[in-house]
Design a protein that fits this description.
Layout (H helix, E strand, L loop, with lengths): L12 H10 L10 H7 L4 H13 L10
Amino acid sequence: MEQCILCHSPVTSDEIAMTRKLINRGASQFLCLPCLARRFDATVAELLERMQAFKDMGCTLFECNR
């Protein structure tokens, strides 16, 4: 299981996708949502909203609930 490179908590597939979407599509190290939020000076809620928007647009990095 992948871990956040900053806090070492497990990361979900959506957190992996968000790291790849916001930082580097080819990333092999990932950030959890709280660490991503700190990096981008945002809240976790804002990132969750953005994540849903990416899913709604059909971004293939995210596993969509079908």
